[in-house]
Structures
1.
Amino acid sequence: MNVLELANITKKYGEFTAVDDVSLGIEKGAVVSLLGPSGCGKTTTLRVIAGFTSPNRGAVKISGVDVGHLRPYERNVGLVFQDYALFPHMTVAQNVAYGLRYRGTPAADIPGCVRQMLSLVRMESMQLRFPRQLSGGQQQRVALARALATDPQIVLLDEPLSALDAKLRLELRLELKEILRSVGATTIVVTHDQEEALSLGDEIVVMHNGKIVQRGSPTAIYETPADKFVAEFVGRSNWFHGLPRGECQNGVTTYITSGGLEIRTRSRFDPGGSADLCIRPEHIELVEVGAGGGDDDLKYNLLDGVVFDTAPLGADVHVVVELAEKTRLLAIRKNIGKGSRFATGQPVRARFLASDVLVF
Ligand SMILES: Nc1ncnc2c1ncn2[C@@H]1O[C@H](COP(=O)(O)OP(=O)(O)O)[C@@H](O)[C@H]1O
Ligand SMILES: [Mg+2]
């Protein structure tokens, strides 16, 4: 059974619809990333679940019970706010103990529970400090400990890592994942950062303009995006706009782009229907001009150009290839020594499978 069930939630601010008919069920123990651009309604959705905002329409059910009439502290939901919102006049230990006292945990049990929570987030040594004496990452851990202390049925994290610098964000991301797994908490992690969403969530829910546009595994979201918005928002891509030419041959439809390129796809032929074509940069191989596939091999796209720019970024090399009509293509290759190095101005052939072109 779903621990959390949102049924047709709509929240309006005046005429503006911030959350638009959102329905979502989450199973016990699942970690779901709610991903979308700033302003798409993620925080509002969390606030509705936690009971800080009442929806205009729809219901929130926790373990099958409609919690619409319950106040936030009565809902057994742990929320970590984007800015952590620690109580500034309380120590770390008092912050973590707060929810426990509020919920009537016997006083004798509180210190043990606080210790356990602080050990979970590796903050035992700082329990007497005040929030202003902590770094951003440390505050984040305390906020998490405070949210988990009451053993909530649902944990809601609003952009938990966004206030941290890039390196720390990466470290804490893994740690957060481990903590959530170890407590088995049913969790929604809100983020606008696709990498964070893909790495933290067992499942991704993509939101756009107040609506859920796709739900699926990280792989499904990346490889089979439901629409152009999802494809553009998740991952890097090369985009072309084209019109289909001729007819479908052996399951291949060829598009002619505005820049005059021919791009073969595996999509169904729709005469007169222009389409947006998307190619992920890691699907583009760079080979010698004249090499590979053969021009009549319908399986491949073979586009000749010259290397316009190359950036060795650690494990990857980002190569921008300039094709005909100054059309540029980003290819990402593994940085595996000499064979993967390219010189600016070098002629090169971009090769990618027709089946790797996403058509919208
Ligand atoms: N209290 C409010 N009053 C009016 N508009 C609001 C209020 N809270 C949020 N909004 C608007 O609702 C939309 C969604 O906000 P929010 O849920 O915070 O988005 P996100 O968390 O995805 O960035 C935004 O356009 C925001 O300006
Ligand atoms: Mg937000």
2.
Amino acid sequence: MCGIIGVFNHKKAAELAMLGLFAEQHRGQESCGMAVNNGRIFNLHKKMGLVKSVFTPEVLSKLDGEIAIGHVRYPTRGSSTATNSQPHIVETLSGPNYALASNGDIVNYHEIRRQLEEKGVYFKSTNDGELILKYIIYHVEYEKKSIPESIRLLMKNVRGAFSTVLATRNEMYCFRDPLAIRPMVFGEFEDGSFVVASESCALDILHPKKIYEMEPAEIVIVNDSGVKRIHNDQSKFVSQTTPKHCIFEHVYFSRPDSIDFDEAVYQVRENIGRELAKLDNFTPDAVVPVPDSANFIATGYAKEKNIPYEMGLIRNHYVGRTFIKPEQTIRDESVKQKFNVLPGFFKGKSIVLVDDSIVRGTTLRKIIFMIKEAGAKEVHMRIGSPAVKFSCYYGIDTPNRDKLIANKKKIAEIRDFIGADSLRYLPIENLKKTVSKPDDFCDACFTGNYPLEF
Ligand code: SF4
């Protein structure tokens, strides 16, 4: 759960990178950072906090240069400290400096780290971005391989999800893991500059000529000669497999105005809502989303059933992750800080409430309690994905299996726990109908069919 940005050949690279990171803030709110090359060295600024508070005009004015890479972080590997935030930079005795930002998670992290440590490589953090950077630099500086050769070795030996941007003093390398698990796009601009990002919404704000999806195991090299794409199917440096994009990017994680894996996120979410509606043989008074990620799922449900779509719940967008929880009671005021009901809206109504997924179920329980307290006659809970029974090891921070409610309780028990009148998850075969290439998606958190061993 992170977002990356890379800007090449632009006089205001830091400002553009900041705009891109701002558009990707939903991918990580814990810390953010940027490394900007001024032609000689990288200036690095990274801190805990949101993009707007970390990259003030004063900070940006000191980040001079035409190459910038940036990162927003929500931790998956490594603790919540500034040391574990990205980008990571390295200076070497032979001169070149490197900076790297990555989104994903490495499943054989400990094995690769141990191998590098035995060769004398030193690590400052426990973050997988640093592992990727040190792996490449070790092979460039000590094994005398080129950067593309080192990236190929990484793709062969380092297993996991990585959508990564690496910058040197005069070049940028963008690459993606062979399964293309996390999203990654790039765009070229009229003035010859180049931007790469996790999501297309980060490029839209910068108005590129055209946006391209990075291919699985592709390397894109950007330098003064232009943009060179090295496709894996031409050079076959890793054996070609079917991609395994994260289906959760469509269900919940990405912004609805992004195009991920060549499909519009909002459209997939509407398809999910339509599939849910087809399974119900009753007509509620209205469909209400748990905002914001379920908004388009509820839109699809309402369109399919031809019933009103109502924003009965209002979300406070300014709570953030740092709000102080008051004493917990059953009338939990902490959830009221984030969600509130429209006055009088729910009284006497039978509604379908839609959410994207259930992880622990505790927030949903409080929301349904609030809706019932506001006078709803019936609350039928509909979930836009199958039951989450397995943890993710590819870059989304789901808790251990024993904390996942669907791993401990049957559906009827979950329904009773959250206080709904009925509960339905979207079956996996219906979820697969919502995307055009269903075999190209990972569904391990629902099925346990992990595409990579660990
Ligand atoms: S396990 Fe789930 S969350 Fe993780 S990559 Fe696969 S589909 Fe996405």
